[in-house]
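I'll show a record.
***
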Amino acid sequence: MTIGIYYFSGTGNTRYMAEEMQRNFTAKGSTCKLIPIEAITKGEQALAPEAYDLVGIGFPVHAYDAPKIVYNFLELLPNTRIRYFLFKTAGDKFLNGGSTNRMRMALAHKSWKLVHESFYTMPANMASKAKPEIIAKLVEAAKQHAVQVVNEILAGKRVLLPDTSTHRAFSLINRAESRGCSKGSRFWRADSNCIQCGKCVRECPTHNIELTEGKIVFSNKCIFCLRCWWQCPTRAINHPYINFVLLKQPYTLPK
């Protein structure tokens, strides 16, 4: 079987699980390719889901739903019958990250067929102290779950996550968050520790950051994925209204 996994990852947790699933698919004899979603939305790679027997879509939970960039990606997908699976990551297992009904419906309108859903609890990237022993425990459990998920997918076992009215109600928070991200985007700053390396500019998945006249400038397209903050080598990036929930230092996932 040939499998293509399109994924979005802000601080690395979803990428980590995409790589783990790829490793397990490969160990079972399948061919599995990973494609970052922003490579498609930025036009850096051609979109060709028809080239695979099965397509995976992975994302981190933002306010009980997928971040806006994932929905932008869905709009680009072709209207043709394609089998796909979903997986998502979050720093809290509450309600399995909300409902995927909105995403299911968007893909059903394109004739895509959902065959499996899974959820991975990973270390939180904000509002929680990242203790090494907790990180190790969560990651190990997620890796074990990835083995089970891959086995279920290859065996043709259909698994869907709960989708109750409560799940859907919490997922509505995502709409408000998307608007808030745009309005709050302009408050990001690079302080005097900035060495103008340009990493945040290159890594931003939405082209929200520019280096202009020796200054880092933020526009209004931020989705609060925290990638710029997470990867800044001098910890120069900050936001006055959310600094209190950001970690003091990014953590490193075990290899």
Q: What stands out?
A: The first helix runs from residue 13 to 27. The beta strands are 2-7, 31-36, 54-60, 83-90, 113-121, 189-190, 209-212, 215-218, 237-238. The first strand starts at residue 2 and ends at 7. The mean pLDDT is 95.
